[in-house]
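Researcher: Excuse me, tokens okay?
***
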Amino acid sequence: LTTTQTHAADFANMILEIEQHDPVRYGVLDSSTWSNRGETGSSIAEEMINRGVIWYPSDRSPGSRVSGKLMVHKYLQGDEENGPFLRIFETCPMLVKELSTIELDTKKTEDVNTDMPDHAYDALRYGLTSRPQNRGSISTIHRNQTRKPVVVDPYFGY
């Protein structure tokens, strides 16, 4: 599914068609789509919501990239009792590829290199940091706050 040069209403209709067979229970959209980009009328998000696609805005507040990266690490690391809180399947090939190739930013090592392909990574980060409340599609982290995490991979920290 490509969104390049696709009008928001048309994209919403494509999503609604897909959701007839595979409903999405919790969708997060880049918060910049709520912005009016100098156009008149509805924002991209508003236009899609008006068509019936329900979205929640991503967190793009200051520091959200770094806290999102930490959240990805925590979900992948999990804990000793339950293992990872997030499992990524081969049916998500772009996410698998990006997570296995994404590098740290050389100047801001607490963040990833945003000059590399990171759309799938951003989507994962948005989903994990969107703070869903009992929507059933993303579980909360259960961990002992006093236990120090064990670093398995020194590059990524989990």
